Amino acid sequence: MYIEKVKNEMNLPETVRIFDTTLRDGEQTPGVAITVDEKIRIAKRLDELGVNVIEAGFPAASTGEKEAAREILKLGLDAQLCGLARVLREDIDAAIDSGIDYIHTFVGTSPLHREYKLKMNKEDILSKAVDAVEYIKDHGIVAEFSAEDATRTEFEYLKEIYKAVENAGADYINVPDTVGVMVPTSMKWLIQNLNKHLNVPISVHCHDDFGLAVANSLVSVEAGASQVHATVNGLGERAGNASLEEVVMSLITEYGIKMNLKTETLVNLSEFVARITGVKIPPNKAIVGENAFAHEAGIHVHGVLAKAETYEPITPEIVGHRRRIVLGKHTGAKAIKSKLDEYGIELTTEQFNKVYDQVKALGDKGKCVTDADLKALAESVLGRAKEEIVKLEGFSVMTGNIVMPTATVKLNIDGEIKTAAKTGVGPVDAAINAIQSVVGETADIELQEYNIEAITGGTNALAEVFVIMGDKEGNRATGRSTTEDIVMASVEAVLDAINKILIIR
Description:
Layout: H1 3-6, E1 17-20, H2 36-49, E2 53-57, H3 63-73, E3 80-86, H4 89-97, E4 102-108, H5 111-118, H6 122-138, E5 142-148, H7 155-167, E6 172-177, H8 184-195, E7 202-206, H9 213-222, E8 227-230, H10 244-254, H11 266-277, E9 294-295, H12 298-306, E10 324-325, H13 333-343, H14 349-364, H15 371-382, E11 390-398, E12 406-413, E13 416-423, H16 427-439, E14 445-454, E15 463-471, E16 476-483, H17 486-504
Parallel strand pairs: 1-2, 1-8, 2-3, 3-4, 4-5, 5-6, 6-7, 7-8, 9-10
Antiparallel strand pairs: 11-12, 12-13, 14-15, 15-16
Helix pairs in contact: 2-3, 2-11, 6-7, 8-9, 9-10, 12-13, 13-15, 14-15, 16-17
């Protein structure tokens, strides 16, 4: 909405090229190593998305890096395949030898790099940069030049070296914020002013040390940059690079820039790269995180169910995601009703209220109620006896490695309070024995089958208990209960079955 008011102040390009460096800078994520075969598989998915350039690696670094570039080249992808090289002939020769037709060459230009890393003066660095670009172009290869640590380089020198490599034939000028020190205002100023002096397309490569890589990339586009370096899931050195999925969706949906990308493959690509690298996607990760389109708060859920745009900037399907209604203590009745309708479960008002109260109670205990949990709770309530002849007034269990498991139960049977204490091989067995001893005075009902299942993983998973009880007359009934307490679930399931038998006797 408001972006339309300021678009005329921007120098937006018609389209933006995506230079993906997941296989190079992304692999430099601490602890990540991607094999040749894995690089091939990721490259295929990047090409399916439709990125313009895939930086396959650093061919001079190892035999494996060179082999990866060659193997990816054999795939005949639509994306251009790029290799990284320092401004050294041996690096460039290694990239040329791998067969690629796009070389990204770089050299440090900031005072820090000149003095401590390279131990070279400005003139020598400029000379090497020009020589490298000319050498690449002499071989008929696309050349992209980066002034490493550009954002800590004196502007006049940066402008001078960029103009020199442009004159040498560079096809793209890349501006790396190597250690992520820029803020959007200064990044925009830098690109605007470089753009006044350069005639070739400007590219940007932003790092996320202060969490500003995406923002800095976007303002660079506002200032006229027409290519953005990015990585899937924001992988990369230290805090990583600009997140490809965030950059892409911001450019398309917020700026209205046309890009020939299959955005519906983004979530699949993100999850695939996460599995390959072992770097998990945070649940709250924008665009692709598990919670990116998840809603719990009652007000939000109500709004989303009425019209998705009330609390979603884009539809989840655009990026290959799905909407999730999460149930917990903030959940409203409409969300639970919507979920039950989705499952085709119809409840009476009384039954629904029981399920609603259970969801709220579980939420207050810090439990997130999953779809499977809700189904089990609803099915448990649906299957309950319509009348309670035997009601639980209270029970307690004592167990451990010193005392034999003992359970005490207090039951209300047709208005008469009865209690019993029994032992068992465990707390569940003891509780069931105590119930059967009390009920046995009224009817001889015994446990015939007992099953328990954890609905979801974790120590706080809901336990679903299913039992079959029977009497000597051949009457049988099932009982079911779902709760986070195994003993309580067992007690409720047994009493449910007992009540059903007593009703039909």
